[in-house]
Queue: 3 jobs
Job 1
Amino acid sequence: MSDCELCELTAEPGLETSGPYHPVWRDDKLKVIMVDDQNYPGFCRVVWNEHVREMTDLVPTDRRHLMDVVWRVEEAVREVMGPDKINVASLGNVVPHLHWHVIPRYRDDAHFPNPVWAAAVRVPDPAVIDLRRALVARLANELVTRLQKP
């Protein structure tokens, strides 16, 4: 689709990108990107390469592969970022291209306990956000390592 921002995301991992997405890992079926969100360092998306809308558009083996990658990303985010909770969501209401959000959440983040798309309930401490942002490079390396394992 020409108007789908996730279809247009073609940069390869390791290359500089401009914009809100930074590819971390890719195979022939999907890609893992870091989302450049000031309040949510460590926010990742697992994006199916082909433009499909729903999980049931995939054959069962592709669904299993996608979910295996989602769980590997969640595991790496948990270990590196040390969040209080991980939110895993597949919405697609705004961008109807199959993708999963993996978002580390903390009791002191801007929206906790509400979804990150809700109205903010507090201003996070910039020092804490900077500390979490410092973990993102380690997270990217950990994701690549985990995702290359069979």
Job 2
Amino acid sequence: MHALKKNRPLRRIVLASAATVSGMVLLLSLKPHTGPTLATADTKSPSVSSGSAPAGGSTPGTKGAVTKTATGETVQTRWGPVQVRVTIRSGKLTDVTAVQYPRDNPRDQEINSYALPQLRREALAAQSAEIDMVSGATYTSTGYKQSLQSALDSAGL
């Protein structure tokens, strides 16, 4: 016998109600991604600044070394903008900082809390934008690499 026979309306009502409740639970459990926040700085063009390292804060062998700071272009990814700033001292990449990255929801924060340090280490070790992507953070990694290359190009490295 078929479960939804017309002579058993109560069974159909129970099954239809259970399907409706299950569908509503699934729909309500989805959390929409909020849109990226707008950047307040000019994100169209990368910026470069340079100057001498302070004599008091320099380490032996870096006295008088020229330090350049360059901010890469903002790269729009599926989950939000990614932008990095690099510091170059005496022609060597010494620091990479993520200025903008997706952080609008807990999942973005979780992904980027492990991805950004790995990308930074990769960039400092490679001294270039030729770095490995971080598994699970493909969009952030792609944006990071593009912005890093833009910053390095602006700084002349």
Job 3
Amino acid sequence: MDQLTGSRALVVGASRGLGRGVTEAFLAAGAEVVALSRDVGPLGELASVQPRLRLERGDAADPVLAGSLLDRYRPDVLAILAGASPLLRPITRQTWETFSTSWDVDVRIAFTWVRESLLLPLEPGSRVIVTSSGAALRGSPLSGGYAGAKSAVRFLAEYAAQEADRDGLGITVSSVLPQLTPATGLGRAAVDAYARRAGVSVEEFVDGMGPTLTPEAAGAAFLSLAVAGPEQAGAHLLTGAGLRPLD
């Protein structure tokens, strides 16, 4: 595959889970990939054999880091997948601090990177892909404010797309809402918790979810948005069966 040959992608939250799948998909498509993570260790082996992979260690919520990396690398594709792991408890066992973690981290990350990409701005034709969650559509009663925060991320992407269009920047902003999946560390913990809440085995719970969303499938979905035309912008639900536009 060579859809991204000659392009540069910056993946925020790149080392594990869906972010790792997106990183590998972009590399396979020929892109030079800048991978940002708090812990770049899981990508060390891949970086040692892949000269087009550059590792950057840092906090995705740091606005100075966001501005400096975007200014330094000027990516053609910006994929934002970083976020906090919510405390998996019912609302009665949350504190305000645990309930609001996703607002303080996930929404802040999305806001910071999207804002910086428009302020710079990135070059016309650039793609910004922001990760929300399927929980924004269905709720997430064991994840505190997670579902509301992810809904805010989706709206934030829509607002940014409107401003990019109003200012004639030529930047396409999309959001992706992945379904719950046992194929990542974060998702597996949530699946276990919701299976216990429902009083069924993990296997029964997973069987009722339909096709499993894998990091590889997420990578393919993000790649499709990275090379799509502006008409494919907007919000997309991502399941094991692929992307489905929501707008």
